[in-house]
């Protein structure tokens, strides 16, 4: 008996990296899985239809149930076909893992319109598109009296939540948007019995993080636990996917074995001009009371946790090298 027996799941971007491990784990736990992936390069270019098929074949060879789908989540009718594939192949849909993502970085003055649009299209619009078609199906099932636990699991990134990174004016807001959308969809779909949560992986060794400084190499000893392996995210996705999971509207960061609940933006100190409107002069004086922070120091503090001690001056120098 698996914890996901009888559940039907879609995992987007499931041909490689984190999504591949999530698809395999969900299938091993008993779910029938649609392995969605057009097999594109890390920047979204190209395509290879064998990538999704290979993962589906691996799952079937291991005794699980899976079919491949190679539509892009960024394509509106393609996203509809992903949902239709689940219902057509397995008769229902209970779990959606929105995992697909691409990266195309560059400093603001260098980043092209296409690079901005494409990253937003896969991450933010792709999450919306798949969830939209799933929500239509969930609404139909609910209207037909077939209410059961259903679960959407989105994927964000620390770049967008905790430490938006320079050169990512597409990727960081796309991920922040996914986290915001998670709350919107949890509120809307909660009335249909659908739970919506978000994972935020961190320091997972995939081709997307190949150039990230400080990424530990894979352990050489066989059988040694690897906290940076893409498989570390899968049990958390499977937990959120399970019919017994009570969570909804949560954004969980996952780094190695640490699962951290995110609190999002929170209101800090307030200054007020009372019953009179502000003037620029009075505001300039009063604003000195606000405990503002330096963004270079904030990023240095955030990166120090992952990469070891780092000063604001070092961060500024790194950024300067990329902006020029
Ligand atoms: N690796 C990390 O440390 C890390 C950190 C934070 C967030 N993430 C997020 O985790 C997710 C998975 O990333 P990964 O590191 O496994 O990367 P990856 O490149 O190994 O896997 C991503 C997969 O998504 C697929 N994909 C790309 N565009 C698609 C589209 N339009 N439709 C469907 N599939 C598409 C790719 O073909 C690829 O197989 C991404 O959303 C990424 O932003 C990863």
From TrEMBL:
Keywords: Oxidoreductase. SUPFAM superfamilies: NAD(P)-binding Rossmann-fold domains (SSF51735). SMART domains: PKS_KR. Residues 7-202 form the Ketoreductase domain. Gene3D superfamilies: NAD(P)-binding Rossmann-like Domain. Transmembrane segments: none annotated. It comes from the Bacteria. InterPro entries: KR_dom, NAD(P)-bd_dom_sf, Peroxisomal_Beta-Oxidation, SDR_fam. Belongs to the short-chain dehydrogenases/reductases (SDR) family. This is SDR family NAD(P)-dependent oxidoreductase. It comes from Occultella gossypii.
């Amino acid at each position: 008996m698996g914890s996901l027996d009888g559940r039907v799941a879609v995992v987007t971007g499931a041909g490689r990296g984190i999504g591949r491990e999530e698809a395999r784990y969900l299938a091993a736990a008993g779910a029938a899985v649609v392995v969605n992936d057009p097999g594109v390069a890390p920047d979204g270019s190209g395509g290879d239809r064998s990538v999704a098929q290979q993962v589906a074949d691996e799952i079937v060879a291991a005794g699980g149930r899976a079919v491949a789908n190679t539509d892009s989540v960024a394509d509106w009718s393609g996203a509809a076909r992903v949902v239709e594939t689940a219902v057509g192949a397995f008769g229902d849909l209970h779990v959606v893992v929105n995992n697909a993502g691409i990266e195309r970085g560059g400093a603001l003055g260098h980043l092209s319109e296409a690079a901005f649009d494409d990253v937003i299209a896969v991450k933010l619009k792709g999450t919306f598109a798949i969830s939209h078609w799933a929500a239509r199906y969930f609404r139909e099932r609910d209207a037909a009296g077939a209410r059961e636990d259903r679960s959407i699991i989105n994927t964000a990134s620390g770049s967008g939540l905790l430490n938006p990174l320079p050169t990512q004016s597409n990727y960081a807001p796309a991920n922040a948007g996914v986290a915001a959308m998670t709350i919107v969809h949890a509120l809307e779909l909660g009335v249909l019995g659908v739970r919506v949560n978000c994972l935020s992986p961190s320091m997972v060794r995939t081709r997307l993080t190949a150039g990230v400084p400080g990424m530990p190499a894979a352990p050489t000893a066989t059988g040694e636990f690897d906290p940076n392996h893409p498989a570390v995210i899968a049990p958390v996705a499977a937990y959120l996917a399970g019919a017994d999971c009570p969570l909804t509207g949560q954004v969980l960061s996952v780094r190695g074995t640490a699962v951290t609940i995110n609190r999002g933006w929170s209101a800090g100190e307030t200054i007020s001009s009372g019953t009179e409107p502000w003037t620029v002069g009075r505001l300039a004086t009063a604003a000195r009371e606000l405990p503002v922070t330096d963004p270079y120091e904030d990023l240095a503090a955030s990166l120090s946790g992952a990469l070891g001690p780092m000063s604001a001056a070092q961060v500024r120098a790194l950024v300067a090298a990329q902006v020029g």
